[in-house]
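=== Structure Prediction Worksheet ===
Name of assembly: unnamed complex
Input type: mixed (protein and possibly other molecules)
Chain count: two
Listed entries:
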Amino acid sequence: MAESFRLSATEAQAKINGGSLTVEDYAKSLLSRIEQRDSAVHAWAYLDHDLVLQRARELDNIPREQRGPLHGIPIGIKDVILTKDMPTQYNSPLYENQAPKIDAGCVATLRHSGALIFGKTTTTEFAATTVGPPYNGIKTANPHDPTRTPGGSSSGSGAAVGDLQIPISLGTQTGGSTIRPGSFNGIYALKPTWNSISREGLKIYSLIFDTLGLYARSVDDLKLLLDVFKVVDDEPGEEFKVKGAKFALLKLPTPEWPELGSGTKDALKKGAELLRAHGAEVEEIELPEEFKTMPKCHTRVQAGDGRVSFLSDYLRAKDQLDPLLIQHVENTNKFTRKEQLQAFDALAAMRPKIDALADQYAAIIVPSVLDEAPVGQQSTGDAAYCAPWTAMHVPVVNIPGFKGGNGLPIGLSLLSGRYRDQHLLRVCGEVGKIFEAEGGWTR
Amino acid sequence: MAESFRLSATEAQAKINGGSLTVEDYAKSLLSRIEQRDSAVHAWAYLDHDLVLQRARELDNIPREQRGPLHGIPIGIKDVILTKDMPTQYNSPLYENQAPKIDAGCVATLRHSGALIFGKTTTTEFAATTVGPPYNGIKTANPHDPTRTPGGSSSGSGAAVGDLQIPISLGTQTGGSTIRPGSFNGIYALKPTWNSISREGLKIYSLIFDTLGLYARSVDDLKLLLDVFKVVDDEPGEEFKVKGAKFALLKLPTPEWPELGSGTKDALKKGAELLRAHGAEVEEIELPEEFKTMPKCHTRVQAGDGRVSFLSDYLRAKDQLDPLLIQHVENTNKFTRKEQLQAFDALAAMRPKIDALADQYAAIIVPSVLDEAPVGQQSTGDAAYCAPWTAMHVPVVNIPGFKGGNGLPIGLSLLSGRYRDQHLLRVCGEVGKIFEAEGGWTR
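=== Predicted Assembly ===
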C-alpha cells in the first residue's frame, strides 16, 4: 500500500479490481506522497484530505457490479475547470475562494465513471499567461529540479503527475499549455482533437483553440480516459508495429519558429535513430511554404479572442489582471477584425491539408518544446512549437524519454490527423516503449 | 409609472437619468405587467419579485456619477445562461433547482454595467430541442396568440419582450433559436458575429455555432448592448440612409431549403417594394451553387458536436433526456468523423465568401422564418432559414413589421459580413423605421 503512489492508473485499477488495494489506501498513499513532496513542488491550488478520504470510502462501498470504468482512479483537476465540491479560483485574486456548485462536463463524466476527483492543481492566471503560479505564494516547481519551471499553464497538473503525486490529471491547451508541461515533467500528455471532449465549464481563452488536455505516466492510462470520453476514430483499431511503419520528422523553419536548443535537437535525432533501429522508416520533411503563417495566425486569433473572453474580468477589476490580459481587452496591438478573420480563415483552410499530410504517415514527429525546462519559476516557457498544432485541431501526444544537457526530461510530440486520437495512442504506445527504454532519461 | 413597462430600454433610461422614473418603480411596473399577463404567456422559468425589487433599490441608491451605461435596465436571461443569484435549470429535470453561484461572462458584464438582472426565461431543453418549454408545466405561449408557439429555443426571452414584460432579454442561437422567436413575437432580434460576445457560462450545444442572442423592441436598445459588450467594427460609424443604398434580396433554393409560406413570401415582396419606394436599390440574387450544402453541413456539424456536448448528461440519466439528444450521443445517424470534418471545413471555406458577397451591399435580406408562428406550443418551429447564417458566423437582425395571413407578426432578416455588427445595426435602424411604419403589423 505505502508505495502504491508509484502505480499508473491502470496498474492501480488492476489491484483495486483484484481486491488487493482499496481506493482509500490508494488515496492515503498519494496523500502521504503529497505531504512529503509538496513543500518542494507546490502543485495543488486546493486539496481537502478529508474530502478525498470520504469520497474514497464512498467508492469502496460501491458494489462491484455497479462500479464505473474509472472506479477509484484519482484525478487532479486544473484549477480553471469547474468542480462542484471544490473552489475554482483560476489563480486570480478576482476568484479567490469562489466555489460554484457545478461540475464541468468532463468532470461530470469522470465522476460518473467512478473517478476520485482529488483536488485542484495550480494554473497560470486563467490558463492564459506564462507567469508561473500561484500569484500569491510559493511557486509551483519542477519536480525533477525545483529551481526550474514545470511549464504552464497546466503547471500543477504536469508537476503532480511527474512527481508521482497523482496518476492522472487534467490540463488545458490554447497554445502549449498541456504539451509543454508534459515535456518539462517527463510524462505523457495528450491534447486530443479539438472539441472531441466537452469543454463546458472550462474557463474560455480562445473558443477555436482551447482544448482539454490529459496527463498520465502511461499510454494505457490515456487510452482509459479516451474511452470514457467516447473519443473514437472512424477506422477500427488495428495493432500497430513500429517495424515497417513510416514516420515523418517535420522541420519547422526559422524565423517563423525560434531556434531549437541542443536538448530537443538531440532528442529529435535520437528519436529518429531509435525508430529506424527498430525497423521504421523516418522521412525528414520540410513544412510547406503555405503553412509558415501558422504562428502569426495563431497569435492574431488568440488576441482577438482574448479581447472578448476577459472583458467581464477587466470591467470588474482591471488592476487585478495580468498586463497581457489587459492588452488583449484593450487591443493594444491594434489588430483589426479583418486581420483576425483572415487569420481565422487561413487556419481553417490549413486544417484539412495538415490532415492529408498526416494521413501519409503513422504519425508526424515534431518538437514539444525548445529544450529542457528553463531555470526559474517565474516564466513557464515558450509555446512556439505547440501552438500551431492547437490551431490545427489535431491530436498531439508528448512522449517522454529523452534528456537534455542538465539531465532533465525532454519529450517529443507525435501527431495525427483530426479524430485519429485512438490511432495516435496506439502508435504512441509502441513508440513510447522504445523512447522510454532507450531515450536516456528515466524518472 | 404604471405604464412604464411599455417603454424601450433607451426610453426608460432617459427617464431614470432625468429623475422622472426610479429603477424600483420601473421594476414594479414590469412586475405588475408580468403578474397580469404571465398566466397566458408563461415566459419565466424563475422570477423572484423580492430579489428584483431589492436589486432595483440598490441600483437607485448608487450615486449618479457611479452609474453604469445600463443603469437600471431590466434584462431577462435565458435559462441556459448562468446567473450567480438565481437557479439555472436548462428546462431539464437533471438540473432542477440547480443554482451554481456564478455569472456567465455576459451576465457579469451586464451586471457590472448597471443592468437589473431580472429573472430567467424559459428555454427548450438545453436550448437544443424544438419541444416548447417547459417540460413540466403549462407551455410558453405566443403573446400575440396564446394558441401558438413563441418559437424557440429562446422561447421565454422572445415572448417576454414581445409581451412588454421586459424591454431586453438574452437568448442563444445554434440553429435559429434567436431569430425565429424574434419573428414570431414581433421584436428585434440580433444574432451578433460568432464569438464577438463571450459565451462563457452558456450551456454548450455546438462550439462553432452557439452564439449569444439579444432581444429588444428597438434598434437603439440593441446598440446600447453592443456598446457595453465592446462589439466594434473596423470601420468608423457613418450615417446610413436608405435612399441610394443597395440591398440584396437572396433567394434560397429548394429542395435545400423548405418552401416558404405566403406570409414570408409577401413580407419579402413588400419589404423590397418599401425599400425601393424609399429610394433604395434592391437586387434579387440567387445563392451561388457552392453554398447549397450549407444546411446539410450545419446538420452534420451540429450532430457531431451534440455527441460530445451531451455525453455527461447522457451518462448521468439517459432516461431524462429528449430523444434528439440521445440520438446525438449515440450517433444514431452514423455520421462519420470524416463527414463531420468535411462539413466543418466546407462551412469554414464559405465564410469569407459570404463576407465578400455581403460587402457588396448595405445588407442582404433573407427570410427569418417559413411563415407566422404555427399553431400549438409543442413544436417551436423550423430553423431552416436561420441555421446557415449561424454557421456563417455573420451578424443577423430580425426586423419586425410585417404580418401573415392570421395577423401575426412576421419579420425579415438583414445580414452583413462578420464583425460588421455596428454597421448592420445602423442599417436596421433606418430600415426598421420603414418596415415598422409601413409593413402592416403593429403591436
